[in-house]
Fold this protein.
Amino acid sequence: MAKRIAIECSHAISLAAKLANVDVVAAYPITPQTHIVEKLSEYVADGELDAEYINVESEHSAMSACIGASAVGARVFTATAGQGLALMHEMLFIAAGNRLPIVMAVANRSLSPNLNIWGDQSDMMASKDCGWIQIYAENAQEVFDFTLQAFKIAEDERVMLPVAINFDGFYVTHVIEPIIALDQEEVKKFLPPRKIPSYALHPDHPTTWGPIGLPDVQTELKRQLEEALRNSKTVIKEVWKEFGDMFGRYYDFFEPYRLEDAEIAILMMGGHCGTARIAVDRLREKGEKVGLIKLRLFRPFPDEELIKLTKNLKVLAIVDKAFSPGGLGGPVFTEVKALFYNQKIKPEIVGFIAGLGGRDIRVDEFMVAVERAKKALMGEKIDKGFMFLQVRE
Amino acid sequence: MAEKKVFFKSLKDLPKEDFFVQGHRACPGCGETIAVRLIMKAVGPNCIVITPTGCLEVVSSPYPYTSWAVPWYHVAFENAAAVASGVEAGLKALMRKGKLEKKRIHVIAIAGDGGTADIGLQALSGALERGHDFLYVCLDNEAYMNTGIQRSGSTPYGAWTTTSAVGKIMPGKLQWKKNVPAIAAAHDIPYVATACPAYPLDLVNKAKKAVEIDGPAYLHVLTPCVPGWRIPSNLSIKIARLAVQTGIFPLYEVEDGRLHVTVKVPKRKHVKEYLKLQGRFAHLTDGEIEKIQKRVDMESEKLGLGPRET
Ligand SMILES: Cc1ncc(C[n+]2csc(CCOP(=O)(O)OP(=O)(O)O)c2C)c(N)n1
Ligand SMILES: [Mg+2]
């Protein structure tokens, strides 16, 4: 029976991986991911999880080992953060291109320099084009549920793609929260063992994987990946619905908050949505028609769904915890701007970069962002459409 | 003392069947493909092969063709040992948990010297230290051949490559060759050996022994490269033999920490015999050649090879 427990978010993901009965864990420690893999090591040491735990010598090898294990048909889990994800970068594309259903937790961490172990989303965003399904979680319950769902989504024959579950370093990873934890029987019903594909590496049916591809095939291969990622939206919806029907917790690509009559909405991903909700409440008390859209799915990007959801909005204030130096703003901001460019009716879209390297985004700062976004509607535009919210000048 | 087991008494004992088959696009006289064909005959079909980026991968897998009659996976350049670790661990877990029928499947990484001595050394060291049950084969053609003959850590002293150019003031590679078999042996793994296709029986027996051993095994194979060494294609085996007969590339095994030479060289030939056939050494002065000879003398003495022919 499902049980209400208090658990650190990091351990919630380890628990989910254990309940998913993963066959192989290959991971390398990096703050703020360490608690995830330490807990898994304990599970294996106590005989609670029957898995091969590969203590690789780097994150590059972690993902390489995951790739090898997944190619023989094993259910595979890993976790990393920041520099570790950057070191994996090359392998991320291969995991996706070879259509391997690896599940990875990313305890989002800033990229060096300076050496900074704290949270922002610049790690995953630097690898956003790697072809993985990318989900962002806000709390322990989401982290737990998303991980279990991730295996089911990844291993679906219509998908066969790796999934990254992102959650903010420290602000989410290290927080103890109550969750409804499923038990082994419940998980078994929802998530059967991985079916070993007929083309898995095995001497009984030799296959050649990862050949050299000349220019005459590369376009088609990349296009297939694009299609697989797009189509995965359907499966994600199905799996989330099935999960909801079984356990009562339903998920969608977005979690709107006080959006019904809103004219302005904050749009963002991850742990700071909690603070943003408080800012929304404060502004509502002052009579402002403000809401929040929490975005859960970054890849595949829920394009039509976002257009539908925002059709009554006048202003979208997008808060990114990552950006592209010399570029056109934060990743969610540029994505959404591109999405709306060809739309006849569109909200004013204003970008804010905040929360870098673990800097908290306070309630009053969210309120400042909303005020500033409102001004853009009155014609007081921000140069390039985006700004840093918290710079000490 | 480790048991002295002979799996193949003559090359006729090898299976007729090939598991690395014809049709690949290697140059005529390529030492790599000759060695791989023999190794695959020795280990048989019950294996999974991982090859990093490099000549072997490129010549054997131009999509949609393949020369591999066994399951084969190329992932990237620097991580063959890490991918092999995952394959081995995956099979182990699936078999233990009853998801895959229990049987021994040999996991074999076959890499170039660049993918081994340089960019892949960390992954190799990690995998050896963790003790995965797999065989790692390094095909040593002494440079990054796939990208156009650039210098590697395994390129010998004095050799010309496209990035150890011979010019008015530079005489080719300035450093000695990295001793990767010794690095592998320093991990105290059960089996390390060197081999070369000029001694095919020695090679196939070592390959077979290496896969049969429990735990990690490392096999370092010298594989002449026709364009890279600037040699005629009909001389690659002869030159490989000279590498052994001069003491430049001694053939040995290290079992449980004990080294023994498998192909005795009672009278070593002068290194000149080996160097003079190869365009990559054509620029070497007598002084440079003597410097190489001195080094080989010193190494040979350590291994207990015979004296030099006079
Ligand atoms: C990360 C990375 N760096 C560089 C390359 C380019 N590259 C491909 S193969 C190769 C050299 C391979 O040399 P070696 O391992 O000795 O194999 P050989 O081709 O000589 O058999 C290089 C440098 C690459 N593919 N990936
Ligand atoms: Mg080479």
User: Anything to note?
Assistant: The first strand of chain A starts at residue 3 and ends at 8. Chain A has a mean pLDDT of 97. Chain A touches chain B through 46 residues (CB under 8 Å). The first helix of chain A runs from residue 9 to 19.
